[in-house]
UniProtKB/TrEMBL annotation:
GO biological process per UniProt: carbohydrate catabolic process
Gene Ontology MF terms: beta-glucosidase activity
PROSITE patterns: GLYCOSYL_HYDROL_F1_1, GLYCOSYL_HYDROL_F1_2
Protein name according to UniProt: beta-glucosidase
Amino acid sequence: MESISFPEGFVWGAATAAFQIEGATTADGRTASIWDTFCKIPGAVVGGDTGDPAADHYYRVDEDVQLMVDLGLHAYRFSTAWPRIRPDAGPVNQAGLDFYSRLVDKLLENNITPWLTLYHWDLPQTLEDEGGWANRDTAYRFAEYAESVVGALGDRVENWTTLNEPWCSSLLSYAAGVHAPGRQEPEAAVAAVHHLLLAHGLATAAIRDQAPNAKVGITLNMYPIIPANPDDPGDLDAARRLDGLQNRIFLDPLFKGEYPADIVEDLEPYGFSKHIRENDLEIISAPLDQLGVNYYAEHFVSNTPEPEAASSDSGVVDNGRRPTGSPWVGAEHVSFPSRGLPRTAMDWEVQPDGLFKVLKRVHEDYPSIPLYVTENGAAYVDSINDDGSINDPERLGYIESHLRAAHAAIEAGVDLRGYFAWSLMDNFEWAEGYAKRFGIVHVDYETQVRTPKMSAMWYSQVARGNALAATVAP
């Protein structure tokens, strides 16, 4: 493969999320999130794992920032924890804000640009007790939280992301029950879709009110939806429905100020339209400065139910744990036949061309907006050598192939300005607990020792050189 260079100023970073790395779930005034509660449900998380101590980042900020410096990262994408900053969704907890203020200062001292995500799934449990994202009031409480964070950090943080992957926070969490709060209520899930988008719009206004020069965006997990048989009307309709639920139900209101008519019709039996009030879509579609794209795999779909199909392709864990449902409201029968492609440890297909397709589609179908790949990476089983070094050639190859797909998109005219590897370090992988490792840096959970893997050393070279070499490092 040929050597390729990325545009001047291309941002090279890595990403994490608060609940996945911080630990310290009761320290300095932090109260319970829906994930703290969910982890206590028997069978909800592999091994009964919890978010404490995770990667102990709360107490190891200096060490972790130095790790980023050593890797030559330009930027660090992290999230703030709502229950740390406004415990129980109540008054501001200064100790919580101070933690993130120290992190931001440390990043800036080392010429690393902070990319702050306000919501990466850790809703205060008190708000879930009042209905969670199915309750419209949660959107307004989120705007209050956003105002608190930007008031404290807006003088130093330029790049703001309101929500990470609202598909997961709504359909995977309230319909499938795979993620916290673990509800399996389709009506609540479609309400959550709209209320999350409303929360985004309200938070966007709050950010711009206090930090007029801020760059505001949202991060969506987007996937090409491929019909198994393009000549089968049933498979085509399955692909249409899933594309609507995965992609268009978020992209269209954000960038067109309307929901896709076919999906509104599909969701009418679940009361979707009743949640949309006057001026909501105007609030949701406020102009954005950038869009984050999270990409992991394509969805290859069939209209024919196949109980033995790889259900993890739909985001539903199927390994004998607590029973879960389908996130595809109104299309629960859709199946995901195997194409025989290589798969990661998460049982997700490896399909780098899908990243090219997603980036090109957004560029062509929606208003021109700067794009950043805000998550891309893979879980694999690492090999620890006798000398303590860690080989992960599959992860390195995964990232390398997706970077080439990203570069192809740039050459095709896509305004892609940066890439964040998921994730900086091994961490609590949601319903998979500590059983799956996405990090380019290994974490020994017994000692909390961090060890850059082969992929991290390679990625460091890429970031420093702003280019991919002709051949993959051995």
